Amino acid sequence: MAKVPSSVVAASGLVGGYGVARWTRKRQLGGVVLAAAGATAARQWRQQAGGVAASALTAAYVAAFAGSHPLAKKVGAWPAVFGVAGAVALASWAVADRRG
């Protein structure tokens, strides 16, 4: 079975977490999706690029989640989520996925 790239896992966690929270109206359930994808991506980042890179990418993932909130007030919720998900996916690809 082919491995899903960490960039896809991370972006899916951000988009999926928001989508689940919005459609179920249960923020905690969206948080579970966000955390599960983040943990999976972090494990992949550590395997592919090492601990320092994994820590930096994990910090970027958390910062993207936090930063999407004020950004949403300026551009709207979905554009903010897609924007930060794209940024995290690009960083993940550049640091971890393109090596593999």
What's the SSE blueprint?
Elements (H helix, E strand, L loop, with lengths): L5 H19 L2 H23 L1 H25 L1 H19 L5
> Shape from CA axes?
globular
Query: How much β-strand is present in the residues?
Result: under 5%
Total helical elements: 4
Structural class: mainly alpha
SSE order, one letter for each helix or strand: HHHH
Count of spatially separate domains: 1
Could you tell me the mean pLDDT? Answer: 96
Biggest pleated sheet: none
Q: State the separation between the terminal residues, measured CA to CA.
A: 16 Å
Keywords: Membrane, Transmembrane, Transmembrane helix
Transmembrane segments: 52-71, 77-96
Note down, in words, how this protein is organized:
The structure is a single chain. The protein is mostly helical. It has one domain. 86% of the residues lie in helices and 0% in strands. The chain contains four helices and no strands.
In short:
The chain has helices spanning 6-24, 27-49, 51-75, 77-95.
Question: Could you name the key traits of this structure?
Answer:
100 residues, mainly alpha, membrane, transmembrane, transmembrane helix
